[in-house]
Structure formats: structure tokens, C-alpha cells
Amino acid sequence: MDFNDTPQEAAFRAEARAWLAAHAPAHEMPRGVRLDDADEAARGRAWMRELYDGGWAGLTFPKALGGRGLSGIEAVIFAEEEGRYYLPKGPFTAIGTGMALPVIARHGTDEQRARFIEPTLKGDLTWCQLFSEPSAGSDLAALRTKAVRADDGSGDWIVNGQKVWSSWAHLTDWGILVVRTDPSVPKHKGLTFFVVDMKTPGIETRPIRQISGMSEFNETFLTDVRIPDANRIGAEGEGWACCMTVLMGERLGSGAHRSGVEPLIEAAAKTPDGHGGTMLDDRAVRQALAETLADERGQNHFQARLRTMVSKGENPGAMAGMIKLAYAGRQQKILGLGMELRGLDAIAPLPGDSFTPDLQYDYIYSVVMRIAGGADEVLRNQIAERVLGMPGDVRMDKDVPFDQLK
Amino acid sequence: MDFDLSEEQKMLAEQARGLLAERTPYDHLRRLIDGQAEWDEPLWRELGEMGFLGANIPERFGGLGLGELDLGVIAQELGRAGAAVPFSSSIVLAADAIARAGSEAQQAAWLPRLASGEVVACFASAEGPGPLLGQGLTFADGKLTGSKHPVADAGVASVAVVQVGGSLALVALDQPGVTRTRLDSFDQLRPHYRIDFAGAEAELLPGRGLIPTLLDRAAVQGAFEAVGAAEACLAMALGYVKDRQMFGRSLSSYQAIKHKLADMAVGIELAKSNAYYAGWAAGHAPDDLPAAAAAARLSALKALEFAARENLQVHGGIGYTFEANCHFYYRRERLLAVNLGPRGYWADRLLDAQPGTQAKVA
Fold first, then answer.
1. What CATH number is attached to the domain comprising A367?
2. Do A323 and A201 belong to one domain?
């Protein structure tokens, strides 16, 4: 066990730090201000381009595919250093690098890799995820959007249905899409995976008015959308395997590098307690902050253990879900605590407060963390079944053809 | 960066686990309780012979000279077994205090015999209800007067390291000025004592101001012990719910049970990761030890509290019987929760290590 950088790691860190010092500050976002969606997405693309031009895009991606072919540890070091800046990173770029690229790299053809990977790494191509539907959330394989072959002999597919929770679908170029191509087989077996140009006729995105006041999620309606067969990823009926690749990327990518607790400790130290001290003198506040900081440290070290496992060729499997489960629950709890320690000011701070509005927004957004990319309950099931070897839930739809389900 | 135990550490853990599984099955613990035993003496002797007790004691004093992480994996296995041995008293607290605060002569006099297990030491800090203080004793002209209670393992110890204010004194226990009275102990496998000193011969350890660091180091080992105990609870719960049939199917197939055990597993992994880091920091990053030790202790106690309680809960009524094995950990958990000072002390220890966050009001 050794937590210090090896000489090579230290050299890599120094190189990353120097490059970031020269290039990251110009891309930092203003704090305490909610940017317009389009503005934020444009900044995200610009940062991607900067990374690409500097040779920092696709760090763990094979060189042959336009990446740098580095180890997971080096990617972590870069993320730690990058995390020191407040950069425009979010689903508008992460869905491309974290979900679309892994699935294209693993299940796509050489032609598809050539067509999509480099433009995505450059920030020229951004992606949204067309997975969930009104009746298919945690039970994703129950999805109903269907694709049938066009009857004109072109081999094209005609897609009809409705997707939901498609983050940034209104501002991204392409989507990764999973649809049902065979309803006569059990639900997991009849799915096929596509990439689709979001400007294709028949695609309509409608923003969802969210509890945060923002609308980065959309409903996406697909009406007679024609997709060439060249945009199918993997074989017909292999859509579920592609989805699993995407979702693994989603889970391993979860978990922030910036501490969630430290800013709250600083805030508590600056908030008067009415007795001549600060809220950091409050016994209950101290206890809650310390226990949460202990959890956060444990999670960071756990993440490091999983990375060591990966670097030794072991597969952490569903253990990766433990990170997201721990992180999401803790975020909601501590952001709620953060509001409490600000007192009534947490509800209505004066203009010019750059801290409290972020706290309010993050508290609202913490809901998303617990639901998206594997809800808490789904993750607990996976941990119980795949890590602890407990039985799967009783399923009414197992082995029943999809079109015979109620 | 490499965050995994070494092959040697994994072997050490495996050896300890194998020995303990053989020597101290749960029926053996039950017999010790029924016999009101002071301890599991044959096991202690064997642990000494195999070098486990001296793992972290320097080679020149008869130990193996290994690191805190090595000692930690042994503590984890002792926690898993629920063993009735004075490891935390004699090795983790007393031997470490002598090694760090003792004179060369004191180290030479005690460490070899502590490392071999031939002699047991206890660590006397508490003085009745409340935090660990050491305020009620008087020490003058080499004579110690006052009471310490409860003190774990004092019945089998030949010597005590006694907290006197901010200092530590060495007191031989088989002398006329010392009276030991066994108390009813909540953890029936770790008897606690009241020790009365009436002008007992004592000598100070010369190292001063080391008590917070000694407690940090003990907290690291305590975290490993708690993680081992929590893992035992999870394994026990898992075994039981997989066997038990209810409403026509395995109890383990119900989400209420699956989710509870998943939460248990997550808590254990976070705690174990903190313990590993703290074990490494104790040897390699002493500046980060206070925070690392406090984080390890807070998360390990939280994991064990949940695991010990919910393991018993999933057993239902059978868990409330002496014949079931849940109670060993249900009781041990409370000992570990209170044996190194209150929660608030460790919360402060962690927060105070954050820049600019020292509490203004104690």
C-alpha cells in the first residue's frame, strides 16, 4: 500500500497541473449564477476542444481510437487536478465521453468508431441519452418505443415512441437510443441499440419544467423517425448488452472529486451562532459534519481501492454501485444540513450572496443524484444480489414474451 | 499509488483467521462466558508464539518490527472472531505507550515480555462515568494514590499503564498498594476491573504530551477490530437469511432484508477503506494521522453499530437467545463504542485537522 505518487505519477501530475494552470482559468464558470443552458453547453464544448488540442481528451481511450491510452490512475490524477477549477463539465459532454464512446468503442464497427469517436473527443459532437420512457425507468427493459424495418427495401428503421429524462436533448447533436425491435420475445431480448442524429425529421424535444426551475431534461417524441441501418450499434436484439456497457460507464463515472463537506465546514465557520461564536462551535453541527466527512473520506479511499483492483485486472462489478449509493445519499443529507446551518438566510439570501444560491440549487438537484443512473433501490438490489449473492426479486415478466405482458 | 494490502499482509490475515476459526468458535466463547473466565489464555499464548502480538514491536525488543497496517489486519481478525484476549489493552495501548513514551530501560524491561505474550499489561484511563481524563489520581515521590475504573483486562495483567493527568505511569499490579476488584462487565468476554492505588510504587514514562497520538494510534487498531466484527455480523446475517424460509421462500429474497444487508456492506467497505488508509498514515503520513484515525474510528463504529443491531434483528427471536451468536457482537460493539473516549472527541479530532476550523467553545 502506498498513497504517494510514484515518480512517473508525480511527473504526470506536474505536467497536468502546469497545463491546467495555463488553460483552465479562462474556462472557469462564474459562481452563484445560474447560466443559460445554451451558454453552459457552449462553454462545455469549448473546454472539450481545449482539452483535445492540449492532448488531454480521452485519456484512457486507446491511442488507435484517438485517445491517449493512459492508465486509470493517470485519469484519476488528471481529474483531481482538473477538479481544482470550476469548469463547465456536465452531462452535455459527459454523456458523449462516458456513455456514447464506450458503447461505440465496444459494440460499434470500425467505420462507426472512425465516424464518431474523434469528433466527440473534440467537442464537435455532443450526445444525449434516449433510454427512459414514461413506463420504463428503473425497469428500463420494459421500454415500448419500437423500430421496424422500412418497407422500401432500404434497410432503414422507422422509429415511433416517446423517451423521457433525455438530458440536454434540446442542445446536443446526437442521441444514443434503445428501442424494441422484436416484441415477440422476452423483454430483454427484443431490444436494439442505435445512434441517431437529433436533427432527423420526426424528433421533437419538449423541455420538462423541473422543481429546480431549470429544464435541462426533456421529453423526446419520435414519430416515424427514419434511422439508417448503418447507425445501428451491435446486432439486432443486442440492445440490452449495449445498455449495460453504457450504465457501467455511468456508475464508474459517478462520484465527485471535489469535497462536498469541506465547503460546508468553511461556511459553518463563517456563520455567526448568536453567542459570539460560529455555527462550527455547535455540538450537533460539528458531530454531523465530522461523521459526514468521515464517510466522504471513506468513499474516496474506497474509490482508490476499486481503482487499484481495476489496475490489477480485477473487476469490481457491482461494488462500483456502492460509491454512487453512498455519494448520492450523503449529498442530499449534507446539503440539507448546509441550509440549516445558514439559518433562515438559507431561504432568502440577499443579492450578491454567491454561496447560498448554489447550496439551494444543489440541495434540489441532489434528488436527481439518488434517482438517475441507478436509483438507490436498484443499486441496493444489485449489491445484495451481485456482491452478497442474495436471490433476485420475484419477477412476473421473466421468460414471458413482451407482447403477452399485461 | 497502490491501495491494496500486500501479499504478506494478506497472508498474515489468512493465518490469523485460520487459527482463530479453529481455536475460538462461538461455542468456545459460550463456554468462556459460562465459566466466568478471565480470558482465553491458551489462545493468547498461541498468538504470542506465532508472533502476532509482537507484530508492531521493534525487532530489538523481540517483536517482528512490522507496521501499523500489519497489526491492523490482526486486529481485524480478532474483531471478527470476537476473541476473549487482552490485545487492545496489552498490545495496542500499553505496549505502544511504553514503546513511544517509555525510556530505553522501560522498553527493554517490558516490551519483549509483552511481545511474547508472557506478560499482559492493561491501560487505565477512565475514572467512572464520563470521558477519559485521569484527573482524580495523585502522584508524588513515586507513589500513586486514587482509583481507576473500569479498566479492561486488569485481572490478568501484571502491569498497568496509568493515565495521571497528561502523563503516563507504569505500575506493577502485584504489590501491596494495589487492589483489583472485578466488575460485572457488559462485554462478558472482556472483564473490567476497578483498581485502587494506595501509595502504590509507580514510575512515570518520560515521554510527555503523547496521549492524543497514542489514542489516535489505538483508534486505528480499534477501527480494524470494529470492521472485523462488522464483517462477522454481515456474514452471520447473510448465512441466516439464506437458510431461513418464510412465507414459502427464502428470507434473503425479501427487499427489506436485501436492502438492509446492502447498506451494511456499503458501511463496512467505507469503514474498511478508512481503516486501511489510517493504518498506512500511522506509519507514513503522521501529519494526517489525527484526521485519518478519527475518520476511521467514526466510520467503523457507525458500520459496526448498524451491523451488530441489524444482524440480531434479522435473526428475529432466535437472535435474543444465548444459543445464537449475535449477542457476542451486540455487546462487543458497545465496548468498542465507548473505550477510547466519546464521539465528540473524535468529531473534534477530525474537524480540528481541517484548516481554520478549531472549536472556539469546548
1. 1.20.140.10
2. no
A399 touching chain B per CB within 8 A: no
Q: Are residues A283 and A352 in the same domain?
A: yes
* Cross-chain residue pair B347–A286, CB shorter than 8 Å: yes
Q: Do A209 and A215 meet the contact criterion of CB atoms below 8 Å apart?
A: yes
CA of B307 vs chain A CAs: smallest distance (Å) = 14
Total domains in chain A come to: 3
Q: Indicate if A227 and A267 belong to the same structural domain.
A: no
Q: Could you tell me if residue A151 is inside a domain?
A: yes
Within a domain: residue A346?
yes
Q: A217 with A166, same domain?
A: yes
Q: Which residues lie below 8 Å from residue B357, measured CB to CB, with a gap of 6+?
A: A265, A266, A269, A280, B351
- Cβ–Cβ of B241/A301 closer than 8 Å? no
- Over its C-alpha atoms, chain B yields an Rg (Å, rounded) of 20
CATH code for the domain in which residue A145 is found: 2.40.110.10
Pick from B273, B276, B344: which is nearest to A287 by CB? B344
Under the banding of pLDDT at 50, 70 and 90, the label for residue A381 is: very high
Average pLDDT, chain A: 91
Is A207 found in the same domain as A265? no
Distances (CA, A) of A288 to A264, A279, A336: 11, 12, 11
- Residues B277 and A301 sit within 8 Å (Cβ to Cβ): yes
3-state secondary structure B33-62: HHCCCCCCHHHHHHHHHCCCCCCCCCHHHC
**Final residue of a structural domain among A171, A206, A236:** A236
Residue B272 has a CB neighbour count (10 Å cut-off) of 26
Residue type, position A168, single letter: W
Tens-digit pLDDT profile for residues A210-236: 999 888 889 999 999 999 999 999 999
Count of beta carbons in the 10 Å neighbourhood of residue B175:
12
**Contact predicate B294/B349, CB 8 Å:** yes
Give burial (CB, 10 Å; 0-12/13-18/19+) of B242: middle
Cβ B357 vs Cβ B351: under 8 Å: yes
Q: How far apart are CA B111 and CA B129, in angstroms?
A: 31
- What are the cell numbers at A387? 456482491
Of A7-21, A314-328, B307-321, the one with minimum mean pLDDT is A314-328
Asked if A394 lies within 8 A of B249 by C-beta distance, the reply is: yes
**What is the side-by-side order of every strand in the sheet holding B121-124?**
B121-124, B159-164, B167-172, B203-204
Interval B295-353: pLDDT, tens: 999 999 999 999 999 999 999 999 999 999 999 999 999 999 999 999 999 999 999 99
- The reported pTM is 0.92
ipTM of the complex, rounded to two decimals: 0.93
